[in-house]
């Protein structure tokens, strides 16, 4: 299996158009980071739709590979699906999210720790890989169409952009089209980033 490369919103600093987590460039070392589209659409297929772009203004994050069996918050343990190996990212970054229609920008300070772990064998038929993204602290997650559709199918309703704080757990899958989030669970607080960027 080829190495999975994806940048998640999973944090902007990271998600999974995973997890399209986590968005701008949270690149991992020797593991996968969730790949995301260059832009995201808030309120798609409505008169209120607008495109959101994101960038990392400051990146003080460090990513390291961790050993299989290492405990991860939320009751998970690190696992490998070679050549994809579990990782841990620490440090902070500053993300910028912009409503491309109005120019309205949100600056989001992100910090905490995040982990990627992989299922030893993909759990979704046809997937190249599946796994779990866990983060603590503050992150921004951006979801592309495939992630939003998968979440909706699971009965989970999230905006295309969400700012979270707390223990976040997202399961993801990677297929020929790239990574996408299949579940979203948060023990903490969240804000609707689309509403904030729309100015409401």
Task: Explain how this protein is built.
The chain has 200 residues and is mainly β. It has one domain. It is built from two helices and eleven strands; from the N terminus they run E-E-E-E-E-E-E-E-E-H-E-E-H. Strands 1, 2, 3, 6, 7, 8, 9, 10 and 11 form a nine-stranded antiparallel sheet that branches. The protein has a two-stranded antiparallel sheet with strand order 4-5. Strand 10 and strand 11 form a beta hairpin. The protein is globular and about 45 Å long. The protein starts with 38 loop residues before the first strand and ends with a helix. The N terminus is likely disordered.
Concise summary:
This protein has two helices and eleven strands. With 200 residues, it is mainly β.
The total number of structural domains is 1
Global mean pLDDT: 83
Radius of gyration based on Cα positions: 15 Å
Q: How many helices?
A: 2
- Estimate the global geometry from the Cα principal axes: globular
Note the main sheet: 9 strands, antiparallel
Structural class: mainly beta
State the total count of DSSP E strands.
11
- H/E series: EEEEEEEEEHEEH
Note poorly predicted spans.
1-37
**End-to-end distance:** 45 Å
What proportion of the residues is helical, as a percent range? Answer: under 10%
Could you tell me the strand content as a percent range? over 45%
């Amino acid at each position: 299996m080829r190495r999975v490369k994806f940048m998640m919103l999973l944090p902007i600093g990271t998600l999974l158009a995973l997890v399209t987590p986590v968005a701008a460039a949270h690149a991992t070392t020797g593991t996968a980071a969730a790949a995301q589209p260059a832009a995201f659409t808030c309120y798609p297929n409505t008169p209120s739709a607008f495109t959101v772009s994101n960038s990392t203004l400051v990146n003080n994050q460090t990513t390291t590979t961790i050993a299989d069996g290492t405990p991860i918050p939320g009751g998970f343990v690190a696992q490998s699906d070679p050549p994809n190996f579990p990782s841990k990212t620490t440090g902070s970054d500053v993300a910028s999210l912009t409503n491309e229609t109005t120019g309205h920008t949100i600056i989001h300070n992100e910090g905490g720790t995040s982990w990627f772990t992989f299922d030893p064998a993909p759990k979704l038929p046809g997937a190249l890989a599946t796994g779990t993204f866990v983060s603590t602290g503050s992150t921004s997650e951006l979801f592309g169409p495939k992630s939003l559709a998968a979440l909706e199918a699971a009965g989970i309703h999230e905006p295309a952009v969400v700012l979270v704080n707390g223990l976040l757990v997202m399961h993801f899958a990677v297929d020929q089209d790239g990574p996408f989030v299949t579940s979203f669970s948060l023990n903490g607080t969240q804000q609707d980033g689309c509403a904030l960027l729309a100015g409401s």
